[in-house]
Amino acid sequence: MKHTSKILMATAAIGLIAGTSAAFSKDLKYAHFQSADLSSPKHAAALAFESCVEGKTSGSIDVQIFPASQLGGGSEIMEGLQLGTVQMAAVHDGPISAVYKPFSVLAIPYIFDDQAMAWSVMDGEFGDAMAEDMLAKTGIRMFGVADNGVRNFTNNVRPVAEPKDMEGLKMRVMTAPVWVTLVESLGASATPVPWPELPGALQQGVVDGQENGVTNIVNASLYQHQKYVSLDGHVFSWHAYLMSEDFFQGLSDAEKTAVTQCVEIAKTIHRGMTAAQDANATAILSEKGMEVVPVSPDQKAKFRAAAQPKVREFVVSEIGAEWPDRLDAAVEAYRNQ
Questions:
Q1: Is residue 139 part of a domain?
Q2: 294 is in which domain, residue-wise?
Q3: pLDDT per position as a tens digit, 36-81
């Protein structure tokens, strides 16, 4: 009888210890919008983050990944980050710009020459200043950015090689006014559509086309409803790695260090996968049955002349000249180094 009592007491003690350990584990809900497979840069990066953080913290942070918009669209996730109901997310440009307007400066088209320039600017003083400002104004911490792909126009009506070919097309854009301005400056009409609803909008003919990078075109099977893709590369689009500041401040110093280091690993994986797909755009999209329309430097100059001044004017009217001027200065500094 005494032996049985000792076993019961020992079992209870083990359960108490396990329960105490679980109680001190911090749940980190991590949302993103791509599918849950390793060919998706967002998901591959999220899995790497999960493994890295849980290993470095010995499980004191329990990372729970919610892919494919399971926790809602961009607007809901940004609200969740501010309220603390979502602890972390990789969010694209449009929803960020709707909450933190200065981010829309990155929608000024034909600014960056290539990934090397874009990464250097966003990893440098410009990106650091934006992260600090975002934190102060929204309560959301931005650790850094990874590629959402170099954005190109697709449609199901005709090849687009220069701005005049855009006239009359109904184009889906992200849910922020700056993207409406970009498309309308080229003569098309713009319809904001949340990312989860885009495939349906294309399939049903609500819009003729859209603009996205290769990763998203493939990941969401947009090629099934789009015949033409024009490689104009109008915007270097971003996924920002965001965290609720309240959650971050509730971490120990060691946990903060682990999260920061692991974001760097995730970001590097994310960038590499997306940039590789952009570099192989012609081969990848041709294989999917799309007609790839090359855009020559002279044609791209026409796109730039039509779109850049109008978008910059709109951005300045919304947020002032400080951030556009900072971006111009950062690009110029890169070119002169």
A1: yes
A2: 26-335
A3: 999 999 999 999 999 999 999 999 999 999 999 999 999 999 999 9
